[in-house]
Request: fold
Amino acid sequence: DTEVTQTPKHLVMGMTNKKSLKCEQHMGHRAMYWYKQKAKKPPELMFVYSYEKLSINESVPSRFSPECPNSSLLNLHLHALQPEDSALYLCASSQGDRVVNGYTFGSGTRLTVV
Amino acid sequence: EDQVTQSPEALRLQEGESSSLNCSYTVSGLRGLFWYRQDPGKGPEFLFTLYSAGEEKEKERLKATLTKKESFLHITAPKPEDSATYLCAALKAAGNKLTFGGGTRVLVKP
Reply:
């Protein structure tokens, strides 16, 4: 299995809703990432988990809450989002510090906040 | 501050018309330079990793090269299916953070 699987593919949520994005990989990768990508812009790093511990938080607002329950799973909990948070949310993984083959990205969750 | 800059922002090519995309970087302690292809609404797809100046990698119609200040992605005799956004990204020696350039949107017309 050489894939990163993200669910759901599309999500529409109101500003008072609570939802979660899920990401799963079975490649034995020990680093996992959340990126946010707006239209026609490059991906922007949000969080990095290394060996299931949060190692980088790029000053992301607290309405985004990451969680890494185990080495294969990564969640992003969403609460009280704003319309400007609408974007493609990408999960990625890599072999810990050995980023020989770059990151493997999932296909993303297209989030719309209404 | 670490920066990765890609040019041009957009490129329109006729099928078979070869061209090059540029990625210039100012990153202290570069550990690797990555090229990705991204189709609309999809996640980036890994193409190449380059580690040291002078290194070259090839895959089908694509060839990536690296100098101390920039990387080039050469597209030889492109086909319409090569239409995509091409992203380069730099990885510093410390940490696992990739810094992406703004991307080059390539459109290949038949």
